[in-house]
Amino acid sequence: MKLSISPIVVFIIGLILTFSNILKGYDVILVGEIHTDENDHAIQLSVLQDFYRYDKKIIVGMEMFQQQFQQYLDDYIDGKISEKEFLEKTEYKKRWGFDFNYYKAILDFARENRIRVVALNIPSEVLKDIKEKGIENINSDYLPKPIPKLSKQEVEKLKEVMKNHPQIKNTQAFFDIQLAWNYSMAYKIYSLKKQYPDYKIIVFVGKEHTEGIKRLLGILDGNLRVFIYN
């Protein structure tokens, strides 16, 4: 599949280039996406390329890969395994499923320039346990305790989401899973920043996660400067 970019996105990318000096003052840049929107992925690639021109100290975080498969992501970026093997070993089709071509240019750029890419997503198995047992009964390295609570605003937003998804029957499980999803990704970003304080973390996630991740990063480290580009 060949991705096409609309004229408006070309204009937006131009704004990003002008805008980049402001963004460079932040520690973490959360670039949201609608997963099937080609324009969002074009913007993500442009952000990555622009920051790389300015500073090579960049780490990319991606929701599209689950954390337990980090070794295969490293191997792919290092050129040790093929794209086919990479997608098989990360179980990409089963665990994410969106057309890989949405992300191929981003990963190609990272591979060509040896930019580290980090898997952010929580393993599906942990979410399954949370659904069955509740987040308070889960002991997982992906969810270090104490686990923050959802904010009142987040609860209200999730209630609105549920109105459009009547198939969701277990409200608490739905809330727990959303919290775990955001917290696991936020904690991984926080850990990366602690480990690599001189690096900027550029994160590609669904737009519905950006506000939650930013709030949780603020709880984990109030000094982190986080920018959302949605």
Can you describe what's shown?
- This protein is an alpha/beta fold.
- It contains ten helices and five strands.
- It has helices at residues 7-23, 38-54, 70-77, 83-89, 92-95, 101-113, 124-133, 152-163, 171-195, 207-220; strands spanning 28-33, 58-66, 116-121, 200-206, 226-229.
- It has a five-stranded parallel beta sheet, sandwiched between helices.
- It is globular and about 45 Å long.
Q: In a few lines, what is going on in this structure?
A:
55% of the residues lie in helices and 14% in strands. The chain has 230 residues and is an alpha/beta fold.
List the helices and strands and how they pair.
Blueprint: H1 7-23, E1 28-33, H2 38-54, E2 58-66, H3 70-77, H4 83-89, H5 92-95, H6 101-113, E3 116-121, H7 124-133, H8 152-163, H9 171-195, E4 200-206, H10 207-220, E5 226-229
Parallel strand pairs: 1-4, 1-5, 2-3, 2-4
Radius of gyration: 18 Å
Count of strand segments: 5
Q: Given the structure, what is the number of helices?
A: 10
Q: Write down the overall mean pLDDT.
A: 91
SSE-based structural type: alpha/beta
Poorly predicted ranges: none
Distance between the termini: 24 Å
State which percent range the strand residues make up. 5-15%
Which shape, going by the Cα principal axes?
Answer: globular
* Biggest sheet statistics: 5 strands, parallel
Order of neighbouring strands in the sheet with most strands: 3-2-4-1-5
What share of the residues lie within helices? 55-70%
Order of helices and strands: HEHEHHHHEHHHEHE
